[in-house]
Amino acid sequence: MEELMITTNDKFGSINVKKLSERQAIQELKRLAKVISIHNINYYKYSNPKISDSEYDALWNRNKLIEERFPHLIQKDSPSLTVGSGVSDDFKKVKHIEPMLSLSNIFDENGLNEFITQVNKLLDLNNNEIIEIVTEPKIDGISASILYENGELILGSTRGNGFEGEDITENIKVVNGVPKKLNLNDIPEILEIRGEVYMKHDDFARLNKVQKKNGKQTYANPRNSAAGSLRQLNPDITAKRNLHFFAYTWGTSSNYFNSTLWEARHKIEQLGFVLNQPSKLCRNVNEILNYYNEIVEKRSSLDFDIDGVVYKLNRIDWQKKIGLRTRSPRWAVAHKLPAEKGVTVVDTIDIQVGRTGSLTPVARLKPINVGGVLITNATLHNFHEIQKKDIREGDTVVVQRAGDVIPQVVEVLFSKRKKNSKKYVFPDKCPDCGSEIISELLSTGEHEKTIRCTGGIVCSSQVLERLNHFVSLNGLNIEGLGEKQIKFFWQKSLIMNFIDIFELEKRNRNKKINISNEPGWGEQSVFNLFKSINKSRNVEMFRLIYALGIRHVGVQTAKLIANYYKNLDFFLDEILSSQDKESESYNNIISIEGIGPKIGDSIIEYFKNDKNLELTKNLLSHLNIKHVSFEGVESKLNNKIFVVTGTLQNMTRSQTKQTLEKMGAKVTSAITSKTDFLIAGSNPGSKLQKAKDINVKILSEKEFLNLLES
Q: CA triplet 63, 682, 699: central angle to 5 degrees?
């Protein structure tokens, strides 16, 4: 069964909870119950979440607030009454002796104070009485139960829906940190230990490397990989994945643990288990918050993922007195970590050379999970950014990831800086080819912030990036010729420029080379490659212009150029004439709407280079260039600005974009005050809320298709 998609009506989703009518609240609770249930199934059953933790928490919190305002409207299938999700059909079902509950979440200091106040109230204590709280990291893994009979492991199971899980006995036996026989003798006949199965960062990186090498799908984060590895039908595969187990609580135990949680943790460790550390016994709110802040800072130094901190009442008799809710204990709570930011360390700063020669500094980070993604790199943009923020190797930094944006370093925590720290010195020559580097003088009289290598075709990084750009999806779209293959052919001196791609088959046929004998290649893969190359010979003019990799020329600009000149030979003649800035040809190109002097000068500069011009002209003998008009028809969509978000069922984003542009509309990637329409597919993300906030008209896929038909 495939992961479930969401198609519910979000009619009242943007209305503040305080302003919901009772009728609206009923509909919203029904919607949230369905949406959260689908996300639970994708997360717990298929280990493939479709939204970030913060987005899920927002849905859950909205449901909670509505139920608090309208308690008489709580649905039978309310998320507040359920735990986890169903079990997979691939495994035998196991009923838990005692329910495996979830934890309620808090997000700030106010939530912590409310939790402590509630504990005081339920225990009927005065505010001066000391309440000891055990604090421990909340592991982002797979909850598991391990049952022992007379000290021997007899059953392992997942949490499932809290009452019924999956039998993973043979798999749990090969997980590190799970003793098959308990160390102590004075234990009850039946004893159940619970905890979290997880994957360390290094093992996660190694697994994805193997998956990629074998042409298999890689995992998004360590939690997903741990879930997939634990649920293998063959335990031998699970054993190879090097999973680990942290123990932190118990189920049925015949009162074996009967004093305090802190002592119980020590007992669990003596039994042979590894505990989720670092933990701390706290006696007031300040100590708890200090621990939380320490964990936020230590997060990057841990070799496993966490998504929060857990606070538990230490005295077990008080735990029993307070009791349980339907889905969570009243004596424990999870304090979630900031979703889109994290604290980590800059190991090194490397310089990447792009296809236009731009030198981009990249921070290599100690791995940290931010927003459900394991981050190891962050862009530092340029030399000026490093100077401005004074970023150095070895610094402790705050990194941020928002949506699809590349992770960035937000700030340096100077209080954590080492005394022997040295300022980062930007290289004075290209780190790849050793050529001079320059910062171009702009028309404003200021120098460009980006520093560039002057090496051009002698710079291997630029050549490789240009080749990758040439064969990319929006370029000639040559399937089977990705970064890995380009690098292979380049190292063999078989593809050194664009022309070599189209002469590869001829050289192979004439026995000058035999690609099928090379590692990773066979007759069929070589046949498919040549088929794809030959298919790309029929190419639209705008794709070729984009593929050349001219600075400042993206897909939209390439379409404007192709639409204006319509013939490549004519275009090249006009560009050569444009070198005279007094000429009509120069005035024509900079007068094209959307081009202007900056882009026009960049195009002229590209073809001033004799090698670029010769290479482009030689390409014409290998290609059949087609012209496709992008002039918008007269329609009510002329000059309307669209943004597309989420997954559409009837057409791809690329098809949607092309259809709209043919009708005279413009498609952009960001919601602004100028946006006319947002087309929202399934799993739309944060753009949907932003569109609602600034009153952009939102179209469902069906409404969009109706608009096209009209």
A: 100
Angle formed by the axes of helices 584-591 and 568-577, to 10°?
120
Contact at 8 Å (CB) between 179 and 153? yes
CA distance 610 to 456: 13
Total domains in the chain come to: 6
Q: Which residue is associated with the tokens 């304090």?
A: 335
The phi, psi pair for 276, rounded to 5°, reads: -80, 100
Q: What is the CATH number of the domain that holds 381?
A: 2.40.50.140
Residue 448 · residue 552 · CB < 8 Å: no
Q: Phi-psi region for residue 596, left (φ > 0), alpha (ψ -120 to 50) or beta?
A: left
Q: How far apart are CA 144 and CA 165, in angstroms?
A: 9
Angle between helices 285-298 and 109-123 (to 10 degrees): 140
Q: Name the strands in the sheet holding 280-282, side by side, starting at the edge strand that comes first in the sequence.
A: 105-106, 332-336, 306-313, 133-139, 280-282
In a domain, 88, yes or no: no
Cβ atoms of 337 and 344 closer than 8 Å: no
Q: Which residues contact 114 (CB under 8 A, 6 or more apart)?
A: 106
Q: What angle do CA 59, 64, 68 make, to 5 degrees?
A: 150
Alpha carbons 164 and 167: distance in angstroms, whole number: 10
State the CATH number of the domain containing residue 497.
1.10.150.20
From 279, 303, 336, the end of a domain falls on 336
pLDDT at 365: 92
Residue 655 is which amino acid? Q
Same domain, 213 and 173: yes
Contact 376, 365 (CB under 8 A): yes
C-alpha 142/C-alpha 45 separation (Å) is 11
Residue 224 lies in a domain: yes
- What is the value of pTM for the model shown? 0.53
Distance separating alpha carbons of residues 104 and 167, to the nearest angstrom? 26
Q: What pLDDT shows up at residue 443?
A: 64
pLDDT of residue 64: 82
* Residue 11 within a domain: no
Q: Is 161 found in the same domain as 255?
A: yes
Residue of 193, 164, 202, 4 whose CA lies nearest to 86: 164
576-584 long-range contacts, CB within 8 A, separation 24+ = 576/607, 576/613, 578/604, 579/604, 579/608
**Structure confidence by residue, pLDDT tens digits, 263-273:** 999 999 999 99
Q: Which residues of the chain have pLDDT under 70?
A: 1-14, 42-50, 52-54, 80-90, 338-340, 371-372, 402-405, 442-444, 457, 628-635, 662, 710
Residue with tokens 């190359």: 533
Range of the domain at 267: 105-336
Give the DSSP letter string of 601-653. Answer: HHHHHHHHSHHHHHHHHHHTTT-EEE----PPPSSTTTT-EEEEESB-SSS-H
Write b or e for each residue in 151-168: b if 16 or more Cβ atoms lie within 10 A of its Cβ, otherwise e.
bebebbbbbbbbebbbbb
CA–CA distance from 492 to each of 486, 487, 501 (Å)?
10, 9, 13
Tell me phi and psi for residue 622, to 5 degrees: -105, -10
Report the pLDDT value the prediction gives residue 6, as an integer from 0 to 100: 46
Catalytic center residues: 138
User: Residue 588: its pLDDT value, please?
Assistant: 87
Return the beta strands (E) in 252-313 as ranges: 280-282, 306-313
Question: Is the separation of the CB atoms in 380 and 361 below 8 Å?
Answer: yes
pLDDT in the model for residue 89:
56
Q: Of 489, 512, 536, which marks where a domain is finished?
A: 536
Name the residue with tokens 């009452």: 163
Reported as type and span, the H/E element at residue 146 is strand 142-149
Indicate left, alpha or beta for 604 from its phi (over 0: left) and psi (-120 to 50: alpha): alpha
Angstrom distance (rounded) from CA 193 to CA 183: 14
Chain-centroid distance of CA 65 in Å reads 29
